[in-house]
Specification:
This protein is an alpha+beta fold. The protein has helices spanning 2-14, 34-43, 84-87, 92-106, 137-140, 143-159, 161-165; strands spanning 21-22, 27-29, 51-55, 70-74, 79-82, 112-114, 117-119, 126-128, 170-172, 177-178. Helix 4 packs parallel to helix 6 (143-159).
Length: 181
């Protein structure tokens, strides 16, 4: 009985790094990203599943799906990669939109990007109409003022992803989330 305990203690002592955080939901994410995943779980509790969320710089450069100029990508099997060099300088709003966008693909099974834009009243400026817009730049700048509209749109998309993706203003999500359109 002592040998298994001794072996376990030796293995734990040999580890230099802490393992990724794990939960009963079957996912592993860094502590930096956890608050954004937790906010998704609180808002959309019926749309959670397995998740591994890592930094793109740690991936093999030939990883299927990653494209030059991307900041994030969901592979479809619950693996999300985010460019850590971008994350370090990103605002909390940009981080939130990025994580929710990718979770929309991975957990929500939304297989499209919504390309609708909305003109801001009394201005010549526009914003995206959805978190599922393919460029984060059109969304995160408007998160604070329009978060309830973005969340309502996400609820609609999650209710029927197939119908949501059949609209004229969508495109195949085989492209990755980019900083600029």
């Amino acid at each position: 009985m002592r040998w298994p305990v001794l072996l376990l203690l030796l293995c734990l002592a040999a580890c230099d790094e802490q393992p990724p955080r794990r939960s009963a939901f079957g996912y592993s994410v860094s502590a930096e990203v956890e608050p954004y995943v937790a906010s998704w779980r609180a808002e959309f509790p019926e749309h959670i599943g397995r998740l591994t969320l890592g930094w793109a710089e740690d991936l093999d450069p030939t990883w299927q799906g990653w494209k030059e100029g991307s900041i994030a990508y969901c592979r479809g099997d619950g693996l999300i990669a985010i460019l850590h060099s971008w994350w370090q300088d990103a605002s909390p709003e940009a981080r939130q939109v990025t994580v929710w966008h990718e979770l929309g693909h991975c957990w929500g099974r939304i297989e499209c990007h919504d390309t609708r834009i909305v003109r801001l009243l009394d201005t010549k400026r526009y914003r995206s109409a959805s978190i599922m817009y393919p460029s984060i730049d059109m969304t995160w700048h408007n998160w604070e003022a329009h978060s309830q509209e973005y969340i309502a749109d996400m609820h609609l998309a999650l209710a029927d992803p197939e119908a949501y993706c059949s609209k004229e203003e969508t495109e195949d999500a085989s492209s990755t989330l980019n900083l600029y359109p």
